[in-house]
Design goal:
CATH topology of the domain at 41-133: Immunoglobulin-like
Number of helices: 1
Protein name: Lipoprotein
Order of helices and strands: HEEEEEEEEE
Distance between the termini: 53 Å
Strand content: 35-45%
Radius of gyration: 23 Å
Helix content: under 10%
Number of strands: 9
CATH class of the domain at 41-133: Mainly Beta
Largest sheet: 5 strands, antiparallel
């Protein structure tokens, strides 16, 4: 018990004398105003692939992160239409490709990060599908 008293004194002293997270002199904390909204960006990770979906712009950026000889692919299932589309990056490891879409009616998408063979357009492997509400948050 006596060992914890000096530690407690240090904590209390730090809180009282400026280590408690309060702004320093000259700094200001402006209160934020406006609406709180969901993030517009969703990341989906697969083996050698990162897919970034931005619901504000309906864009997909597909990053190839592994020199495995496969293309990086975003597989996008639209639950409103029942259709599946793809965004291919066949530019090689360390590159990215962007696909722009324009989704009406705020669909629920299911996005997977995949690898594939761009020539024949075949998918090799995919991550689990991540459900994403394509509704763009207000700006």
């Amino acid at each position: 018990m006596t060992r914890s008293i000096p530690a407690l004194a240090l904590v209390v002293g730090g809180l009282l004398f400026g280590c408690g997270g309060m702004p320093e002199e000259g700094d200001s904390q402006v209160p934020s105003e406006g609406n709180v909204s969901q993030s517009a960006v969703t990341y989906i990770y697969g083996n050698g692939v990162t897919v970034v979906y931005n619901s504000a712009s309906d864009s997909f950026t597909v990053h190839d992160t592994l020199a495995d000889g496969h293309s990086a692919v975003a597989r996008i299932y639209n639950s409103n239409t029942g259709s599946t589309t793809y965004c291919w990056n066949s530019n090689g490891a360390g590159t990215s490709a962007v696909c722009n879409r324009n989704y009406p009616n705020n669909p629920l998408l299911r996005i997977s990060a995949c690898t594939g063979e761009a020539g024949p357009g075949t998918i090799v492997a995919c991550s689990s599908a991540v459900p994403v509400d394509a509704f763009a948050p207000t700006k």
